[in-house]
Please model this.
Amino acid sequence: MARQQLNEALESPLPEIAAASPSLRPRLVSVESQGQQVDLDADDATSSSGRVQILLPGPPASEPDIPLVGLPEDSFSLRRRASLRGAARRAFDVLAAIVLGLVFLPLMLGIALLLRNEGGPVIYRHRRIGRDGTTFECLKFRSMVSDAERKLRELLERHPELKEEWLRDHKLRDDPRITALGRFLRRTSFDELPQIWNVLRGDMSLVGPRPIVHEEMMRYGRFLPFYLSVKPGITGLWQVTGRNDTDYRRRVVIDVYYVRNRSAILDVYILLKTTGVILRGGGAY
Model:
């Protein structure tokens, strides 16, 4: 039944999202979708609060103080259950991250030594969007040459077809910037092992939507609040249902489906299936 619901969601149409030139970075970007407008602060990376401003039409979000006496008992029950679920999820994340960190510590040390011998930094840090629009440094083992950003600009300037692919997928299937060791790390997903530290810090969860960069926020349109309502994960439903072989439209649908149907059973299913995906190296590039 769950698989049928997901397949139906993947076939449903998504709203058109207003396109904006990637070369323009206005202070406020407007995304219109089916009569709704979401304003995104384009300078979140330099914002002192480290948060992305999201303005939705309608009454202010703040509500007047409501006395506790007289509220339906179900309201307290729902909030209590939600709080307990959040605490249980966090406890599981921390415990599992500690165990995984100890298990993979020798492997991570070996990878760090190999990267150090290559020259350049061992860890690649990149700003990503987290829950509630907060930004954080997502950690990965470096899988590209040291001057990857400069090489990317040169590639996109010289090859229009690569620029089109980058704008469409925010990835290059045959990226010449990836090193031989980096290709192995990506195929096995070992490049993401440092994100165990992100989980311990509370930036990420073991399971959740894939962390996105600021430029990808517009792709979610009116569905952006779903992404922002949970922590991004090291693995997730998108990674085990096609990974990079899935186009961005389906990725948004999968993220929304996960948030709407999130449960401990679904998370365990994703974690178990992640092992098989890593062993096969399916969809990784």
Summary: Residues 112 and 122 are 6 Å apart (CA to CA).
